[in-house]
Specification:
Layout: H1 3-13, H2 30-37, H3 41-50, H4 68-84, H5 96-100, H6 105-116, H7 119-123, H8 139-142, H9 144-151, H10 155-161, H11 172-178, H12 187-191, H13 193-223, H14 229-236, H15 239-259, H16 265-271, H17 279-299, H18 301-315, H19 321-324, H20 327-332, H21 335-346, E1 364-367, E2 389-392, E3 398-399, E4 439-442, E5 467-472, E6 479-484, E7 490-494, E8 498-500, E9 517-520, H22 523-531, E10 537-543, E11 546-556, E12 559-568, E13 571-575, E14 578-580, H23 583-592, E15 608-609, H24 614-629, E16 635-639, E17 658-663, E18 670-675, E19 678-683, E20 690-692
Parallel strand pairs: 9-10, 10-15
Antiparallel strand pairs: 1-2, 2-3, 4-5, 4-8, 5-6, 6-7, 10-11, 11-12, 12-13, 13-14, 16-17, 16-20, 17-18, 18-19
Length: 693
């Protein structure tokens, strides 16, 4: 097998190329592999896969679109890391142009082969190459430069990398051009966030305006003698209009910041809002402009030489016209970020960013609470139906705006458990450690890819089994912030890569000494235990399907009923409106309060624990019947005709049934009574439905 085919197979084993990539097709040629690797992106990804910590993908351009400047930067990053992290000799490495211009692709294959034999690569358990005798054919590499020039970027490659120029891709050309050369004017400005924001807006606008003028002066004007007016317009689109626009904008921005304390800065951008719409035309045509520029450069030697000359005059050859044409799109995508940062500096008194939003280590944000919620401080309800108050993304506390400054320090909750991270649905809750922060166990290895959002921070490398101390957890975020206990490193990791640490889970409480506790028991067995007992005899059992869950089984109206005890957020409950810290509290409460509070058809209390002997329960029944089971009887009646109950609240009767009447105060002719051991409401139709005894 040819060396390049073995190289492609090695890249697939390294998870750099998919198994069905075109280099594996029967019709594949060495050109396909060369074209795939030319921009340097996959080579950098290769190093990341072999040793995650050796390279940060934020330092490379993931979508260079074959820009020479960006591709060479990626390739040189790859070569540098090969020397520094993989200890390869410089003599073993190819030159950057050997790959980009495919001047010596055989050397590229040789370098990758030696990389596959390095100790780091071998430690990954991936078989190196070549693994068999190779057929050397130098002729297949000689024609590559001509093929590259003729074909350009294939459609598959364009689809593979998607569309390129996005604001979150930290474009190197834009950053280099916008970089301020002068130091900040004063120490006060350095320490003042607002001043720094204004200074950045001012300086970058000046730099950008200069860049536009440079494109017009050093490229567009000289090329008028070499290109027809149609091609000139297609390449430079509306650059002259952009130059005029930003000459005016930079003057007004400078005047506002220098002489008016930026008080009218927002008015300036509102004023220019309509004029900035010309960027729609530019951004929609810039890809076509670059394609036309590439085509003209390849077909006309005089234009290519003139472009090189223009580049040297404009910036000493650092940036080509192809690179500079991307800058306007980058700039227009930066405006909202610059203004958003400035806006945040002004909004400490607003509802969005109130004064005490971060007091006592909290991170309060305006929030819409789906459920009725009380303020942590004043215990009053949060008002309204949306954006009722503020929610701390770290501990889950809710509060009024006016109460934020009085909320206790973010950390341990009243019950010793972490507040629920999600308001609806199941939530994971863990006990706090001595540091006051919850700990999580890693269930999936994460090495920094995919990377967390740019505005979050660095990624945190974690391995299965590691323990993470949680610092920040936004309920709607895919990434959380934490500290790896083993390494002491801080960073962001995927929220689905962890689970509550087993050592943090609450230890089961021993209830075996309680007369009502039955241990693990199926509901069928519970029915057998209770069927021949007094009404209101009950037991608490572990549900066998969910060993951490409990259930109440109770005999009522000569039937055994089962109630699931919900254990959520560290509390026990059978109804949403009442919760208990312990199972003991729940049992004690419902010994004196009817279960009807949560179940309308279950009007009884927890009266007789099932472990109490039946004769003792019978005596207790006689002593307490007047209190719980036998309300005052107003009279006895006989049903005059059959009645079929329409729901659980009504009492079905047959003609001739004896009914004990407890109350006649119901509405619309309904009384409350008992028949055949069942207590429900029954219809009297003004007394005509019953016959008095």
């Amino acid at each position: 097998m040819e060396p390049w085919r073995q190289c492609a197979q090695w890249l697939i084993r390294c998870r750099v190329l998919p198994h069905n990539h075109r280099v594996t097709w029967d019709t594949a040629q060495v050109f396909d592999l060369a074209q795939t690797l030319r921009d340097g992106v996959l080579l950098c990804q290769l190093l990341k896969n072999l040793q995650p910590s050796c390279i940060n993908l934020k330092d490379i351009n993931l979508r260079p679109q074959m820009s020479q400047f960006l591709c060479l930067k990626n390739i040189r990053t790859f070569l540098s890391v090969c020397c520094e992290a993989f200890n390869m000799k410089k003599s073993d490495l190819f030159e950057a142009f050997d790959l980009f211009d495919v001047r010596d692709f055989a050397k590229v294959i040789e370098t990758l082969s030696k990389l596959s034999h390095t100790p780091i690569a071998l430690s990954c358990g991936i078989r190196p190459f070549p693994t068999e005798e190779s057929v050397q054919d130098e002729d297949i590499y000689k024609a590559l430069p001509d093929l590259i020039d003729e074909s350009g970027m294939e459609e598959d490659d364009e689809l593979y990398y998607d569309c390129v120029y996005r604001e979150d891709e930290a474009d190197e050309v834009y950053e280099d051009l916008m970089k301020a050369e002068a130091a900040l004017p004063s120490r006060t400005a350095e320490s003042d966030i607002r001043s720094c924001c204004l200074l950045e807006i001012k300086q970058t606008e000046e730099k950008y305006s200069e860049t536009l003028e440079s494109i017009e002066k050093f490229f567009m004007d000289p090329l008028k003698k070499f290109l027809p007016i149609v091609d000139l317009h297609k390449i430079f689109i509306n650059i002259p209009e952009l130059v005029k626009l930003h000459k005016s904008l930079v003057l007004e921005v400078n005047d506002s910041i220098t002489h008016k304390s930026s008080q009218n800065l927002y008015q300036i951008f509102l004023k220019f809002k309509e004029r900035l719409l010309i960027y729609g035309e530019y951004c929609s045509q810039v890809e076509s402009a670059i394609s036309i520029l590439d085509s003209v450069s390849k077909t006309r030697e005089d234009v290519r030489l003139k472009l090189e000359e223009c580049s040297k005059r404009a910036n000493n050859g650092k940036f080509t016209l192809r690179d500079l044409l991307v800058v306007p799109m980058q700039r227009v995508l930066k405006y909202h970020l610059l203004l958003q940062l400035y806006f945040l500096c002004l909004c400490f008194r607003s509802n969005i960013r109130p004064e005490y939003a971060t007091s006592n280590n909290h991170e309060f944000k305006m929030h819409t609470f789906e459920r009725v919620t009380s303020c942590k401080v004043c215990q009053m309800l949060l008002r309204g139906t949306f954006f009722q108050g503020y929610f701390c993304s770290k501990c889950g506390t809710g509060a009024h705006k006016e109460c934020l400054g009085r909320v206790d320090t973010c950390g341990r909750g009243d019950s010793g458990t972490l507040k629920p991270w999600r308001e609806n649905g199941p939530s994971r809750s863990v006990r706090y450690t001595d540091s006051g922060l919850p700990r999580l166990q890693v269930i999936r290895t994460y090495s920094g890819y995919p990377a967390p959002p740019v505005n979050n921070g660095p990624s945190l490398t974690i391995q299965i089994g590691d323990t993470i101390e949680l610092i920040r957890a936004d309920p709607h975020s895919l990434f959380w912030q934490g500290k790896n206990i083993a390494t002491g490193e801080l960073g962001f990791f995927p929220s689905d890569a962890v689970k509550p640490s087993p050592c943090q889970m609450p230890k089961p409480v021993d209830y075996s000494g309680q007369l009502w506790y039955a241990g693990a028991m199926e509901r069928v067995q519970a029915e057998v235990e209770l069927m021949n007992r007094e009404n209101s005899t009950y037991l608490i059992r572990h549900r066998t399907k969910e060993i951490r869950e409990y259930a109440i089984s109770i005999k009522y109206n000569n039937e055994v009923k089962h109630i699931k005890i919900l254990t959520r957020d560290g509390f026990f409950r059978i109804a949403e409106n009442r919760k208990f810290k312990t199972l003991m509290e729940l049992v004690e409460y419902y010994k004196h309060q009817s279960l009807r509070e949560g179940f309308r058809s279950l009007d009884t209390t927890l009266l007789f624990p099932y472990k109490v002997p039946e004769n003792e329960a019978g005596h207790a029944s006689n002593r307490t019947s007047g209190m719980f089971l036998s309300p005052k009887i107003l009279g006895i009646a006989i049903a005059r005709y059959d009645f079929c109950a329409r729901d659980m609240r009504e009492l079905s009767l047959f003609k001739g049934d004896v009914v004990k009447i407890y109350t006649k105060s119901g509405t619309n002719g309904w009384w409350r009574g008992e028949s055949n051991g069942k207590v429900q409401k029954c219809t009297a139709y003004g007394g005509k439905g019953f016959r008095a005894l």
